[in-house]
Each structure stands twice: as C-alpha cells, then as structure tokens.
UniProtKB/TrEMBL annotation:
Organism: Cryptosporangium aurantiacum
Protein name: Carbohydrate ABC transporter substrate-binding protein, CUT1 family
Family per similarity comment: Belongs to the bacterial solute-binding protein 1 family.
Gene3D superfamilies, A to Z: Periplasmic binding protein-like II
Keyword Signal recorded: yes
Leader sequence residues: 1-30
C-alpha cells in the first residue's frame, strides 16, 4: 500500500465518520425535538369571553376542553375578566414581567397593545408556510384587522357587526310588525316611542356608552352618516358635521324619551327581562339574548339602521389573540392553540355558543356550520354586513387607548346620557384628543 493509498483510505474513513456523526446529530436533534414537542406544557390564556357569564364563558371552556383532548401534552389555564379590566390587567402583568402567554385584545385596543405589550408577531411563531396555510383560510378583512403597521400581530378570533335586536312580543303589543323592523333611525325613534306609549315598556337602547368604552358603535354611526373618525391623513375629525349629526341623533333618542338614560348593563338586563323593545349592540350577546328569550319572547334581528337614504356603514367589534410568551415551548403551544381556534369546528362553537361570526373563507361550505346557521337565523344580518364592513379606525400614536377612552367618556356618554350639547362637546373633545395625540 502506498502512502497515497493510505491517505485515501483515511480520507474515506474520515468522510464516513463525518457523515455518521452528522446523521447521529440529526437523529438526536429530531429525538430532542419530538421530546420537546411531546413534553407537558401549560400556557395561560387571558380572555374576557371566558369571564362572561352564561353561554359565552361556557363556549370558551368548550373550546379549551376540545383542544386539550386533541393535545394531551398542552394544558390551557384560562384567566377571565371583563373586557374593560382585562387589557389593563395584562398591561400590569407585562410590566411586572409576568404576562399571560395568550391574551384576547379587543380590536379597539390593538394599536395601543402593539405599542405597549411585548407581542410576538404571528410570523415568528411558525414557518412561513405554516403561517400562510392557516391565515389563507381566514377572511381578508379579518386578517387586516389583526395587522398593525403591516405586520400581523393578532390572530383573528372574534368579529361582529352592530345588530338591531328586536323583541317581537313588544312590537306586536304596540301594534308594530316585527317582520318589518325599522330601517332608519327616524323609524327606530318612532317605533320606540310607540312601544313606550302602548306598552309602558322602554323603547330602544344603543350600546354606544358601554362599560368597555369600545367605540365600534360610535364609529359605525359616524361612518353611516357619511363621515369618519379620522381623515385620510389621520387627523381626528369629531367636530365634522357628519360626526355632530350622528351623535346628535344618539342624544335625541334619549331627550325624546325613546331611549332611557341608563347604564349599558341595566339596558341589557331590561332587554333580557322582556322590558325593552330594541337593543343595538354586537352579536357577542346573541347567545345570551337567545337563552333569555326562550319561553319568554320571540327574538328577531336586523342590520344597523340608516341615516335617511344613506347606506349603513358599520365597522366591526370583537378581538384578536396576541402571544406574549418569551419561552419557545410555550410559543409553540400557543401556536397550536391559535391554529385550533381558526378551525371549522372551533368557529362553529364560537358562532353557536358565543355569537361571533365565522371568519373562515370556507365557512359557507361547512355542512355542520351551515346547519348551525340555519338553526340560528338571527345571526344572518350581521353576517351580511360583514361582507362589506368598514374597517375600524385606530387613533394614531402611543396614547391611542387613552384617546379612545376620552372619546367615550367625555363625548359619547355625556351626549347620550346627560343631554350634553353635541356641537360644543365634540369640538372640545376633538381639540383635547388632537393635543393628546400630538404630545
């Protein structure tokens, strides 16, 4: 054997050992990966729907139970709370370095959350192909809602449009036809006053000054009167004729006696008790209202009323799910949970038990969901509106959440409940918010 032959043999042996080493490393990595994937992991899920009594909370628990059955190594630890308090609590937890792994954030708070919470973008949770596979199954408008600065930060979970809930029993008692619900705000006012005079019950209530301080209904009214909360350049325009006109209608309902000057929670209780003819809010209360009406009164629904001949232009309410965990194993588990929550079966539960709309592009082709929807025709008006919904507008800057609260507390609530003058009130609040956002 020559020296060259020996070198060749050693080279071949070295190459073979290198290949074996690489194969061993790959096999070990795969084993460790499988072991990590199968290792028990617990993730915390903060959800205001979980904190909702009756069917809303039960629906979230059903989703958790089904997911854990399919993923025995992953435990979901839910944390409830009201919509109003949940975001504040999550902020405090994040500041203390202990946020939940997943948090349900309302669309009206998402821009603020993107600035103030350590959100892990959806694209960072899985491979590009996996993310594309999941997100391509969702409605484009839902994906757009979860984007902040062209980055998907929240997985769409819950979406609804404003719905006019009608107590058909009170309508008939007042001599009104529930099969022909009011189509304009003038008709709503007239029907409400008729209900008051003929039945001695309350007429209508708009969930504009709600406890969560969500402005989705405020924006829907301004949009439908031909305006918008923000100009194309992003400036607040609450003092516009369209905004003043929209909120003047809201105040006039109360001043005329068509709408009681009470808190939103009290109005919900009145409607459930059969003592309120109409209630305008999100379909998130659909399941709860359906349960309350059973055996008491017939529940009907219609879309958001118009301003005269102008088309209704509602925006959406609801929430997305953001991931806040820094731990890779918990992020992987969170991704599995988010993926499950976008499935057909999950949206079936979300629609039937909570009242939000199915957000998959193939929902119409799902026989099980189609059957559910056929049994729940009251959700159809909201679904029809979703096809042409106006995008929600978030006020710009890191103080957007504070600005939204000022809008609701200092403009909407006083005009709706305390008979504040709409033009002067909106002018003052417009200036206040503009200065806040610029600071």
């Amino acid at each position: 054997m020559t020296l060259l032959d020996g070198r060749r043999r050693r080279h071949r042996l070295g190459a073979a050992l290198t290949v074996l080493t690489l194969l061993c490393v790959a096999a070990c990595d795969a084993a460790e990966s499988d072991e990590a994937t199968d290792a028990p992991v617990t993730i915390r899920f903060a959800s205001y729907n979980y904190g909702t009594p009756d069917l809303g909370g039960q629906g979230v628990q059903e989703l958790i139970d089904l997911f854990e059955k399919e993923h025995p190594n992953i435990t979901i630890k839910p944390e409830g709370g009201t919509s109003k308090e949940l975001y504040t609590r999550v902020q405090a937890q994040a500041a203390a370095g202990d946020p939940p792994d997943i948090a349900q954030i309302g669309w009206s708070k998402l821009a603020s959350a993107a600035d103030n919470l350590p959100i892990v973008p959806i694209d960072d949770l899985a491979s590009a192909d996996e993310v594309k596979t999941v997100t391509s199954q969702l409605l484009p408008g839902a994906i757009e809602a979860g984007n902040v600065d062209d980055k998907l930060v929240a997985m769409p979970f819950a979406m609804s449009t404003p719905t006019l809930f009608v107590n058909a029993k009170l309508f008939r008692a007042a001599g009104l036809d529930p099969a022909k619900p009011p189509q304009t705000w003038e008709e709503v006012k007239a029907a409400a006053l008729t209900i008051r005079s003929k039945t001695q019950q309350q007429g209508v209530y708009l969930s504009a000054a709600n406890a969560a301080k969500s402005d989705f209904l405020t924006q829907s009214l301004i949009n439908s009167n031909g305006g918008a909360l923000l100009s194309e350049s992003g400036d607040v325009q609450l003092d516009s004729p369209q905004a003043v006109g929209a909120l003047s209608m809201l105040g006039d309902l109360t001043a005329s006696g068509a709408q009681p000057a009470i808190a939103d929670d009290d109005a919900i209780s009145l409607f459930k008790a059969g003592k309120l003819g109409m209630y305008v809010t999100s379909t998130a209360l659909m399941a709860s209202f359906t349960k309350a009406a059973d055996g008491s009164f017939e529940l009907r629904t219609a879309g958001l009323p118009r301003f005269g001949d102008q088309p209704a232009r509602p925006t959406y309410s609801g929430a997305g799910l953001v991931v806040l965990s820094k731990d890779k194993a918990e992020q992987a588990a969170a991704w599995e949970f988010l993926t499950f929550l976008t499935s057909r079966i999950a949206f079936g539960i979300i629609t039937e038990k909570i009242g939000y709309l199915p957000l998959r592009t193939d929902s119409a082709a799902d026989p099980a969901l189609a059957k559910r929807l056929a049994q729940q025709p009251s959700i159809q008006p909201a679904m029809t509106q979703l096809a042409d919904v106006t995008p929600y507008q978030s006020m710009p800057g890191r103080r957007s959440d504070q600005a939204r609260q000022i809008l609701q507390d200092s403009a909407v609530a006083p005009i709706m409940l305390d008979r504040a003058d709409p033009p002067s009130t909106l002018a003052k609040v417009d200036q206040r918010i503009t200065e806040l956002l610029a600071s």
